[in-house]
Give the backbone structure.
Amino acid sequence: MESNEQIKEVIKQKYSEIALQDKQINARSCCGSGCSSNEVYNIMSDEYELLAGYNPDADLKLGCGLPTEFANIKKGDTVVDLGSGAGNDCFVARHEVGETGKIIGIDFTEAMIEKARNNAEKLKFNNVEFRLGDIEKIPVAANVADVVVSNCVMNLVPDKPKAFSEVYRILKVGGHFSISDIVLTGDLPEKIKSAAEMYAGCVASAIQKTDYLQIIRIAGFKNVVVQREKPIIVPDDILKNYLTDEEIIAYKAKENIIYSITVYGEKQINCCGTNCC
């Protein structure tokens, strides 16, 4: 990748394809990027079927966690979902906010927005909307959201500090986020880091866990907590697209370095001294 705009264009093209392909292909791919595996298990995605509000038409098997399960969403809340895809997390969140709440899904892929809007129309939801937009410049006014969620999307954003500063901007004081994402605890092979498909697949774009959490804290968030963590194992038939047999052996000999984490953080009232200003 030579520039942020080129990275965004690769991701946009890949996710436009994903919006139109069978979700069973997505289920066995690295975050739906198209680098499909013959393994029978999902590489990253968690199962949503037991969550209230789940709609199978909106589940493209693109996530790496269940952020809405950990987001402490309440009745009447306004929830913003970043990288909303076909609406999966939005519809789960809508069940939690009820008729008095509001859900805003943001995605920069037109095909995903169209798919999500069609799903919402089928469900006759009048308090769920989908907006075309970039997470580095979220099309939502400041201090609007009670809760922000996102599932395996923030790592795709080239300017992560800008993205988290935008999350901070749109949250109300006292609001919070719960975000699932892919992070690293070591170095990926260069051949994987430079592969466009693996970038769009949420792996090559991942940064170190310590750096990820530091970006969140620098953005101003408090009480930052990792709510859940699980290792991500990339199957051999995907690794063979990028590494030689010898390189695969060397890669697998090391301790696992790819993880899915679900992170929580709060936007608190800024105070000075012993009393709030």
Notes: The chain is about 35% helix and 20% strand.
